[in-house]
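Hey all, quick one. A colleague (J.T.) asked me to put the pyridoxal-5'-phosphate job into the tracker so the inputs and the structure tokens live in one place instead of scattered across chat threads. No bug as far as I know, just bookkeeping. Sequence used:
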Amino acid sequence: MQADKKLFTPGPLTTTYSVKQAMLKDLGSRDDQFIQIIKNVQTKLIEIAVFCSFEGLPNDEYTVVLMQGSGTFGVESVFQTCTKLDESNVLVLENGAYGQRIEKICKLLSINHKVLRFPEDRAIDCDAVKSFLEKDNNYTHVAVIHGETTSGALNNVEKIGQLVKTHIPNSILIVDSMSAFGAVPVDIQKGFIDFLISSSNKCIQSVPGFSFVICSIKKLLSFKNNSRSLSLDLVDQYENMLKTNQFRFTPPTHSILAFKQALDELEQEGGPQKRYERYSNNHEIVRKGLLSIGFKELVPHEEQSKIINTFHYPNDENFNFEEFYKRLSDKGMVIYPGKMTKASCFRIGSIGALFAEDMHQLVQLIVQILRDMNVKIPIQY
Ligand SMILES: Cc1ncc(COP(=O)(O)O)c(C=O)c1O
């Protein structure tokens, strides 16, 4: 069997052999073994959230709801369940494609909303958020992305949460921490986060299949019978799981098995802190390697999440991204196209089962391929 390509992408990402192997089992949804695994997975996710919270999260006040589908299903389930048609007014803090996706969800659900836009190549400016909230605080919900995967910028969600709760004490704070939770530190309590969403195939390093929402039980239950969607009703999903330990609809059994293994491997690695150290090291190897041959990165270093980094295309007539991508892929290394609206860029992820030697190999291969393509080194802009 041919070895898998290395995915330098923000999910689906490269998983370990043992994570893939854990899926070689058929379990029924009512199987005792499966029910125990679901409980184990929920406990461990809350443990991670507690671990990341500096003052310790009171775990009897928070729960985790697993939701079938990709990350967006988790995000949409929060909006479907926790907003009221004529009463809610959502402030979306947007600095990239995933903030824009929340805007789109609000539009489709006809939820009143206002989008406060920030440049897509920077982290959100907390002083600007403060000035805005001082003048306008007529919102029931605020939504923000933690690691904006579009660019690799890291938003300071704890600081934003503190500002939000100072100016709108009774509001609900929704944080999309899709590509950050499990590695990038996030203090749910300090940041007054009511709903935090992530998914199986990001920093926990498992396969796709479900998302999960870590949330305040009290806030969640205040939206009982409110959902406008059946399948995305987060309260119903929570209550049913509490009563029966089962998903309401067909569970992603194999994905949950892989996830349990991935959580064990996160623990073996030393937890989120150690994992973040590895990702940061991966990130720095590629950054230093590419900067040394003249590439320019999009987001200032101190605002980067270390999850993914964005580099400008060289200004060289011999550079062609499709060709560059294909040559790398043919050699077993998959990178990611850019998602910027203004700049022509490509992205390199540092998450997944990737280690220092993989990152060094990628840099070497990039140099070799640029030479083969007759792109001038140092890179010209
Ligand atoms: C920050 C963020 N939010 C939302 C999503 C959407 O997740 P999915 O593609 O799994 O639906 C992603 C995907 O990469 C993401 O990075």
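Adding what we noticed when we looked at it: Residues 10-11, 70-72, 98, 145, 149, 176, 178-179, 199 surround pyridoxal-5'-phosphate (CB under 6 Å). The chain has two domains: 6-10+271-372, 17-268.
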